[in-house]
């Protein structure tokens, strides 16, 4: 009785193919595509690393992670103050500051509207101040 080398070589091929497929999956998991009109916040070892704009990037999945995706287009809101409807546009100017302030623009607008409902000018001034603290700008 002699042992055939075919089962052993087949085992090596299966092992090699499995390792190769694993490496391909690992490599592909680090590919990041940022769409046009978006910005992505990246952290390295749980600290801010970089802000990426549209494009294709490769990040080591063990070191880096994507923590925020934001639109670069202005956001529009309709607000009623003293029975007048006003349209405001807000754009995020400092994505890092906005991300780490845990602010949501809609909540900032609602908060400012609740506090300052006497006049439109008072509301806009309060809103501008609040937005600047959170990395945003009001477009008039």
Give a topology summary.
Elements: H1 6-28, E1 31-34, E2 38-44, E3 47-52, E4 55-58, E5 64-71, E6 75-81, E7 84-92, H2 95-100, H3 105-115, H4 120-133, E8 136-139
Antiparallel strand pairs: 1-4, 2-3, 2-5, 6-7, 7-8
Helix pairs in contact: 3-4
Q: Can you describe this structure?
A:
With 140 residues, the protein is α+β, with helices and mostly antiparallel strands. It folds into 2 domains: 6-71, no CATH class; 75-139, no CATH class. It is 39% helix and 35% strand. It contains 4 helices and 8 strands, in the order αβββββββαααβ. It has helices at residues 6-28, 95-100, 105-115, 120-133; strands at 31-34, 38-44, 47-52, 55-58, 64-71, 75-81, 84-92, 136-139. The chain has a 3-stranded antiparallel beta sheet. A hairpin with a 2-residue loop joins strand 6 (75-81) and strand 7 (84-92). It is rod-shaped and about 85 Å long. 10% of the residues are buried. The mean pLDDT is 85.
Give structural attributes.
140 residues, alpha+beta, 2 domains, three-stranded antiparallel sheet, 4 helices, rod-shaped
Provide a short characterization of the protein structure.
The protein is an alpha+beta fold.
Helix content: 25-40%
Structural shape: rod-shaped
Strand tally is: 8
Q: What is the overall number of helices?
A: 4
Side by side, the strands of the main sheet go 3-2-5
Overall structural domain count: 2
As a percent range, the share of strand residues is: 35-45%
| Cα-to-Cα separation, first versus last residue | 89 Å
Secondary structural class: alpha+beta
Describe the largest sheet: 3 strands, antiparallel
H/E series = HEEEEEEEHHHE
Name the poorly predicted regions.
none
Alpha carbon gyration radius? 25 Å
Oligomer: single chain
Mean pLDDT: 85
């Amino acid at each position: 009785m002699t042992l055939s080398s075919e089962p052993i070589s087949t085992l090596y091929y299966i092992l090699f193919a499995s390792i190769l497929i694993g490496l391909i999956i690992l490599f592909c998991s680090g590919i990041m595509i940022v769409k046009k009109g978006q910005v992505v916040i990246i952290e390295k070892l749980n600290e801010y690393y970089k802000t990426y704009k549209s494009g294709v990037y490769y990040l080591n999945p063990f070191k880096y992670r994507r923590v925020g995706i934001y639109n670069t287009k202005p956001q529009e809101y309709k607000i009623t103050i003293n029975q007048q409807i006003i349209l405001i546009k807000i754009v995020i100017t400092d994505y890092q500051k906005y991300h780490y302030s845990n602010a949501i623009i809609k909540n900032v607008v609602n908060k400012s509207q609740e506090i300052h409902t006497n006049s439109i000018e008072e509301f806009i001034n309060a809103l501008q101040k609040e937005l600047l603290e959170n990395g945003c700008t009001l477009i008039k």
